Amino acid sequence: MSELRVQCHSGYRADERPVRFTLRGREFQVNDFDGEWYTPEAKYFRVVAQDGNFYVLRHDEVQDSWTLDAFRASREFREAQRTAESQPAPAQSTKGSMKQ
To answer: Which letter does DSSP use for residue 33 in this model?
Structure first.
């Protein structure tokens, strides 16, 4: 995904861990780390952003590029979505309509 930018903490290594990321123009602060793992091609970070949702960020260290590999909405976010979807649609106003 080309619309992802990641800012990292650099300690012992460069790009040691993400601290914030921007996805489609919206900035997210990393609040917690839920895991990290390596493959021969990349390093993965499963993070919890300030919105409470889970994101898996993949860093291809050879190409120095980042991608969003997975997303999971938090339980609270999913429950809020279900509540919003179950609400009845607002009644449409008939004000200004012509009666025959």
So the answer is: E
pTM score, two decimals?
Answer: 0.72
Residue 66 has φ and ψ, to the nearest 5°, of: -115, 145
Rounded CA gap, 4 and 22, in Å? Answer: 6
- Angle 14-20-70 from CA coordinates, rounded to 5°: 95
Residue spans of alpha helices (H) in 1-100: 75-86
Structure confidence by residue, pLDDT tens digits, 57-89? 999 989 989 999 999 998 776 676 677 777 776
Strand 43-49 to strand 26-38: parallel, antiparallel, or no bridges (unpaired)?
Answer: antiparallel
Q: Measuring CA to CA, how many Å separate 97 from each of 48, 91, 100?
A: 49, 14, 10
